[in-house]
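On clarity, I found the account of how folds are encoded harder to follow than it need be. Since the whole study asks how a given chain folds, the encoding of that fold should be made plain. For illustration, here is how one protein appears when written out as sequence plus structure tokens:

:::
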Amino acid sequence: MRKTKQKRRFRLRYILLLACLFYLSTIFFNQQKMMRDLEQEKKAKEDKINSLNVEIAELQDKIRYADTPEFIEKIAREELNMLKPGEIIYIDKEKNKNKFIKGIGN
């Protein structure tokens, strides 16, 4: 009778130990998967931050360029058709695609 009680206890302990090991291993693997997913998400967000930082730098360069006299002159010439004093425009009648002289000399 004692041996059967000891065997039952041993089996019960063995089953409990296996159940605990199974539970802990599932928790471990779930956490590993979660860590991998979080690392991928972190990398994606870091890449997005880097691309946005590059875009910000480019836009800041454009803003700085917009304050230069060269940019102001370029806009005045291209969009407002302005000339410097003493400048002469030569019109090539064969090139009607040039938007600067479009409509002039027709």
Remarks:
- The chain has a mean pLDDT of 85.
- The radius of gyration is 38 Å.
